[in-house]
Specification:
heterodimer; A: mainly alpha; ABC transporter involved in vitamin B12 uptake, BtuC; B: mainly alpha
Amino acid sequence: MDVMPKWADVILIPMISLLLAAILSALVILAIGENPWSALKIMVEGALGSTYGWGYTLYYATNFIFTGLAVAIAFHAKMFNIGGEGQAVLGGLGVALVCLYIPWPHWSLALIGATAGAALFGAAWAIIPAYLQAKRGSHIVITTIMFNFIAAALLNYLLVGALKPAGSMEPATGKFPPATFLPSFQDMFSTADNTLFRGAPANVTFFVAVAACLVIWALIWRTRLGYEIRAFGHSESAAKYAGISPTKIIVISMTISGALAGMMAINNVMGEAERLVLNAVEGAGFIGIAVALMGRSHPFGVFLAAILFGFLYQGGAELALSTSIPRELIVVIQALVILFTGALDNMVRMPLERFFLARRRAAKPKTKLTPAE
Amino acid sequence: MDLLTLLQLLDSTVRLATPLLLACLAGLFSERAGIFDIGLEGKMLAAAFLSAAIAYTTGNVWLGLLAGIGASLLLSAIHGVASITFRGNQLISGVAINFLAAGLTVVIAQSWFGQGGRTPQLAGAARFNPITLPFADSLREVPVIGPIYYELISGHTILVYVALLIVPLSWWVLYSTRFGLRLRAVGENPAAVDTAGVSVVGLRFAAVMICGVLCGLAGAYLATALQAGFTKDMSAGRGYIALAALIFAKWKPWPCLWATMLFGFLQALALRPDLIERTLGFNVQTQLLDALPYILTVVILAGFVGKAIPPRAGGEPYVKER
C-alpha cells in the first residue's frame, strides 16, 4: 500500500516544491532591493492581464508543452533526455528545409509537411544516442549533451554557409514563402471591430500542442506500447522477463521524445520567426526538464506546468522592462523548480510521508476499538 | 609553420586547457566516488563570477580566488545534500545547479555592478599576472630550448602551474593513499566500504567538496587569469567539455591531462583559422573544430576506440540495507 494518498503525491508535493521555489525567488528579489509582491503583480499584469500578454504566455507555453512532453515520455521509460535542445535545433532545420524548398499551396498542408519534417529531424537526432545506449551502453545523458553541442555547431555551419541567402550578412535563412505563414491568434480570434492578441506570436500550433498532449496520454495509458514503456521504466528486468525488448523500448521512446522536441520548431520557427535563425530554441529544450518534473510526467500536468512557465517567461520579460530585475531571474526560478521537484524531491516527500503515516497510525486504533464497544 | 608559431599555438593550448584540466580533475574525484556531476559548468561559472567580483572590490586576486572557491563549494554542498543526503537524482541536481549559476550570476552582477551582468574590468593586483620563470629572459637566445622555455613553459599565471601540479597530486591521492583507495572503492562498491566500517556518506561528501574546490580554481582562472573580469555565460560549455575529457580519459588522472590538452589544442586551433589554412592548404570549418571534442567523446563512448567504463556505482544513491 502507498504511504500517501494519491492526491498528496500528485498535487501536494509539486505545490510545496513550487512554494519553496517561490519563497527562495522572493528572497532573491528582496536581496537585490526590489519588492517581490509588486514584482509578482507586474508579472501577472504583464502575462495574464491582456490578450496580448496571454498571446505571449501561450506562445511560450506551446514550446514548453512540446519539450516537456518529450522529456516526460523519456522519463516513463526511465531515460533522461537532456538533448531536447539539440533535437529542437534539428527540428528547426527540418521545418526550414520543408518550408523553403517545397512550394506549398496552403498553410494547412505546409503545417502537416513541416510537422513531419520537424518530427523526422528531431527523431533522427535522438535515435543515435538511443541506439548507442541500447546497443553499446553509452550513457544517454552524456551522449545527448554532446549531441546538443554538435547540433549547435551543425546549425551554425549551415547558417553561415549553405542556407544563408546570397548577399546576406546575418546567419539566418531567408524568409519563408507567405503560403507557409501560420495563422496567429490575432488572425483567428479578432473580430472586425475588436482586435485581440494584437502582435502576439501565439498561433495555431498551440492546438497542435494540445492534441499532442492527448495523443501522448492515450499512447502511455491506453496502448500496448505505452504499457511496455511504463513496464520497462518501472523495472527493466521484469520487462525483459515479460518478453519486452529493452532495445525496442529505448529506441522507440527516444524516437517519440526526439520527434516531440523537434516539433517545437513549428511553433518558434514556422509560427513566429518565419525563418530559421541561430539560437531559435532559446533554452526551451532545458525548460522541458523543469516542465516534465513539475507536471509529474503526466500530459495534463505537463500542460499546466508549461502554462506556468509560459507565464514566468512572459512575466519575466515584462519585469525586465519595468524594473531593474534582469530576465535571468526566470532562469533562477527554473533552476529552483528543477531542484525542488527533481533533485530534492525526497526532502519534501520524506516529512510528508511521515506525517501521513503518523496520521494513519493514529486513526487505526479507533477503528479496531469500535467492535468492542 | 615555423617553431615560433607552433610554440605560440601550444602556449595558447596550455592557457585554454587549464580550466578544462581543473574541471576534469574535479569531475574525476566526484565520479570516482560514485557521484555523477554535470554541474561542473555551473560551479565554474559561479566561481568565475564571485572571484571576479571580490577581486574587483578588494583589489586582491587571492581574496577573489577564495571567494570563488567558496561559491563553488556552496553549489557542491547543494549537490551533496540533494544526491547523497536525500538520495535524489544526481543528473537532475546537476542540471539545476547549472541553471542556478547561470541565472544567479547575472542577476547578482546586475544588482552589484549595473553593467548588464558583467563585472568591471580587472587590472593589476586584482588579476593573476603571468610569471616569468627564472632565467627565461637570459636563456631566450639559446636556439630551440630558449624559445621553448621562454614562450611555452615560462610566462603563465600561477594557476596554470598549480593545475599541472594537481595532476600528479591527484594520481598520488587516488592511487597511493588510504583515502584514495576508499574513495575509489565507494564508487565501485559502496556496500563493501560500508561493511568495512567506513562512512559512505562521509567519503562521498569529501569527494564532492574536493570537486568543488577544483571547480572553484577553474572558474577563478577563467575570470581572473584567462580573462580580466566576468562576463555572462563565460564558462561557455567548458564544464561539458571537461566532462567529455573525463570520459576520454577513462576516469584516470594522467589521461585527464592528455585529453584536456588535446581539447585545449582544438580550441586554440579554432582561434587561428589562418594558421590551419596556411599549413594544410585548405580551410577547415571552425564549427567542425568546435564540435570535434563532442564527436570524439561520442565515438569513445560508443566503444569504437577502446571501451570507456565508468565507475560501477556511479549515479546511484547508496541505500543501507535495514
